[in-house]
Amino acid sequence: MKTSIAIIGAGIAGITLARNLSAHADVTIFEKSRGLGGRMANRRREGFSFDHGAQYFTARSPAFKAAAEQAVAQGHASIWPKAVHALKADGLVTDTRPTEPRYIGLPGMSGFANGLAEGLDIRKEATVARLAASRDDWVLTDNEDKDLGRFDLVISTAPAPQTIRLMPEAFSAHAALKAVEMSGCFTLMIGLDAPLAPGFEAARIEDHVLSWIAVEASKPGRSEKTALTIHSRNDWAEANLERDRGEVQAEMLESLKRLLGRDFSTAAWLDLHRWRYANVEKPAGQPFLFDPALGLGACGDWCLGNRVEAAAESATALSEMLIARLQGA
Ligand SMILES: Cc1cc2nc3c(=O)[nH]c(=O)nc-3n(C[C@H](O)[C@H](O)[C@H](O)COP(=O)(O)OP(=O)(O)OC[C@H]3O[C@@H](n4cnc5c(N)ncnc54)[C@H](O)[C@@H]3O)c2cc1C
């Protein structure tokens, strides 16, 4: 009988891991959300489309570059933006330097994950709340104590602060999990009735509140309705995580007004998303965590760095080790 493996999370790490392992084991992914992609996220409201998590990804390793290019060929990804300018209090500084390709999912950022996930066994809206040891395997249960099944191995790809809550005290990599530091981010989404030509597709913002702005309609395959996605700085988000959402939104809008000279507070659509664990400040510094005695492991961007590719690399490294182990079994 094949080894059964439960993967917690259908972000890029969980999906990469499942793809690599599915020829060698019975793999099931549990994802707490309705959609796939995790922090490679897309939200559609009132005809507006926002990529409210990762903005684009780069692919430096040959394997991930091949995956990105294959997704482009299959219509699951495209290239954007042409340039990332800098928006400062005294104006826009254009960036004309040649750059490596930057990829986005199609028709939204999660499209890249959806394309990679084709054919995988994924249980959506299934939150893994507890792992209980039962002789030779693990019994997974959800928030309502519903049995999600028994598995030989369990791998969590949830952000480290969430993975640590799932792992038993006996998990040998507890100290490494605890050492990981992640930071939050607020994302402001603005939908407008009329077109806007701010002179850029995307810009890094030099400001004490905001860090990034993207013009969604400048992306291939998106809604043509004018939509802006704006990220706060991570340090500002950390200092304001528990603050009233209305106040957070008002301060972000105030900063934007200073930078663009325009008040968006009466825009047709306004929404705010809080990412509790958005970016990796201090990674684990090892490609993955695995306890062979317990049959429990973890991987994700937080193992190696702060990028989509780091999540894919972490999952690939763990899958290579697991395949060698399964073949030796
Ligand atoms: C605002 C923001 C901007 C970013 N910008 C960029 C960028 O421009 N470029 C870049 O390369 N990277 C960027 N990133 C980082 C990038 O999104 C991540 O590095 C990458 O998506 C992480 O993938 P992952 O699979 O490791 O984790 P995730 O995408 O977080 O996946 C984990 C999954 O686990 C699920 N989950 C968690 N707990 C449970 C549970 N108990 N049961 C079931 N499911 C569970 C979650 O719902 C999620 O789907 C950004 C991130 C954010 C938030």
UniProtKB/TrEMBL annotation:
Top-rank lineage group of the source organism: Bacteria
GO molecular function annotations of the record: oxidoreductase activity
Domain (Amine oxidase): residue spans on this chain: 92-277
Name of the protein this chain belongs to: Amine oxidase domain-containing protein
Organism field: Agrobacterium albertimagni AOL15
